[in-house]
Structures are given as C-alpha cells and as structure tokens.
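debug: dumping io for the single-chain case to check the tokenizer round-trip. Nothing else runs in this session.
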Amino acid sequence: MPQSASDPAATALRIVSLAPNLTELAYQAGAGDQLVAVVEYSDYPEAAKALPRIGDSFRIDFERLRQLNPDLILVWKSGNPVAMQERLTEMGFRLLVLEPQTLDDVAAHVRLIGQLAGTENIAEAAAADYLAELDEIWKQYAAPPDTRVFFQISALPWYTVNGSHLISQILQRCGGSNVFADLPVIAAAVSLESIIATDPEVIVAPVATVEESEWQRDWERFSQVSAVRNRNFVSVDRDAVSRSSLRLAAAARHMCSELERIRAQSLAKANR
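debug: decoded output
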C-alpha cells in the first residue's frame, strides 16, 4: 500500500513524474532530489536525464511503479491516458493532477508541488521570480494584439493551437493575434489552404534551437502569404514553449522581442 494512501498529508519524499513538463516543475519547486522515477523525454534540467524511466506519458510499468512505492505521483491531466490515471487511483497512489489553464497557473503548480514536497521556500521564490519576469515582459512589450500570427506546431500535417492555449495567451500579450484562435479544440490539424486564407503576417515555429531555420524552406513557394513575402519567421525553443514550466517566461520574452522587431521593421518599411 503506498504510504500516501494511509497518510495523505505526509510530506512527499518519493515522487514519480509522468510527464517531462512535470519533471521540470518538480525541479523548479526544489523537489528534484525527491524524484525516484520519471518518463521518457524528461531531459531538463540535466540531472533529470540520470533518473530511472518507468515508461512514457502514455504507457508505464505498473509493477515497477508498485516496487518504487512513491508517496506522490505527478500526473498530466490531458497528457496521461484516463485509463492510466484511473488505475493509479485504484492502486491507492496519491496523485497530483495538473493542467494549467493560464500562465499564472504554472506558478501556482510550482507552489503546490513545493508545499507537498516540503520545499515551500524554494518553490515560492521560483514562482515569484517567474511572475515578476512575466510582468516585466508584458510592460516592456505591450502592444495591441493586431499582428496576425500562425503558430506552426508541425508541418505535413500542419498542426496549431487555438486561442485558449498558453502559447496564444503569450502571443496576445506580445501584440499577436492567433489566426486560428477560434478552433473548437485546443490543438488541431489545419489545411494549408486555410492557413493561406488567413494570410498571417508572422509564422512562429518551435524548434530544437532558436537558430534553426530549415523549417522556413517549406514556405518559400507561398509568397502570396504576407509572412513569407516579408520573411517574418520566428523560431522559438520547442521545449521552453511547449512544456508548461517556468521556462515559459523565457519563451515569452523571445516571442515578444521578435514580434516587436517585426512590427518595427514593418513600420519603417511603410514610412519609406
């Protein structure tokens, strides 16, 4: 029987993370030393690479998990299968199920992990720094959200996010307007024809490094799109922008800076 089932208020000393973003949050909350296992792709910070793997976000070794006897399991609400979550509950494990709806929620999740792990001071400091940085970014780059942006998660198929996604929330605060904000689901495939029809002024894509630009070549034959014609492409760190961790602040600063640069170039061109 997991320790947490008998004493749900106990400090979590043996934690398992079932998603890479949750692994990051645990470290950011000061609870990295209490992680006893994680899932594949948990590669940040560097120390996470040395932790035992019990599967991936979609399939785990339940017997191995039982042997590890964690007193807290961090669960990604939409990323871990419902059946997995139900089985973990049936096995008597204490779960912390997380799914941020806003950028501020990320800070709240860090604080919560810190409270459960007994690392409140570290978690509170990290969360406060993150929120302060976001506030500074919004003040520095405040602009009306009127620059049309297509956020390209992937190509062939073309995949993007709607207006509820944290990425869209960042874009809006940076002066960007997600051209697919009205999608009925938070992330979905869209057709090339529909992308061209929205005529985005900027195309943003997550990549392994912000210097990566090969993805832009796929767009070279579509010069009718404003972003392509004006070479308004933005590469953003894939993990920083896609994992709901405190690294979202760094992604936000980069995207805001790039959108401001593009707006300034457009204004200068218009005034020639």
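debug: round-trip ok. The CA atoms of residues 81 and 143 lie 39 Å apart.
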